[in-house]
Amino acid sequence: MKTMDPELELICDQVPKLSSADRRAVPIAGGMTNRNYRVNTTSGDYVVRISVRETGELGIDRDNEHHNSVLAAKVGVGAPVLARVENPEALVVGFLEGVTLAPQAFKDPRRVSALAGALRRLHGASRFARDFDMVQVQNRYHQIVMKNGYPLPAEYARYADRAKRMCDLLTRTRERTVPCHNDLMPGNFIESDGPGSHLWIVDYEYSGNNDPCYDLGDAINELELDQGSAEQLVSEYHGGPRPTELARARLWSLMSKYGWSLWGSIRIGTTGDPEIREWAEALWSRAVAEFESPEFEQLMDRAQAADL
Fold it and tell me: Looking at CB atoms within 10 Å, which of 27, 35, 115, 306 has the fewest?
């Protein structure tokens, strides 16, 4: 059955398991840097992720994404990878039965436990193809924004000194790097069978070897975890309380906001998308609140203390 997307038709014709004439394709909502379709054939149920073209400035490396997606699947965290198509650029993965989660779902501590387990498994995968460091990513995004005259978040420069001190501390106290997802938005989680069940993590566009504490912090940010849930996540990930790592994770959460806000600036500058503008403004508002909080300096102190 023909679809209405000619690029999807071209992709399916290049993948034997998708090339049958009886295929059915249904768009999947969401996806800021992909168009996604669920494609069903007699061979199985799949998802085709078609890359949008204006992602070069965002630093998305499709070779890296494909390589790391395969490794994430091997440890049972990512979807099984069927194929990569390069013209047009697309990744074909197995369809995962389950429910896509929203931030409020993680108010249930069973889901926080499942998240800690999923991140431990992912961080135990074979080394990814490239490294990822939000300190470097933020700096590169800032250069792109300034060069192209894209809109900066309000009073962004006001927090540069605080951000630099935070970045220096997080870099200095990093002990190791492991395979990380680095973009733990709620739409990237699929729950298999209710709270506490297996949690899949999809979309490895920004994946790379990184401080494992960054993934904890990015999850705290993207899932809007409260203090109790953040403490549970870090404690269950490490197998016990780790006050220093909790402070580092919360600082990485702030750094995630500081860096991804500029991702929003680039997307606003290139697309003018009002939904991205709304998302980026809300993200930056949360970042400002954390920079201005008296707790910022307390976290800086705790992140340098040794866990006993």
Answer: 306
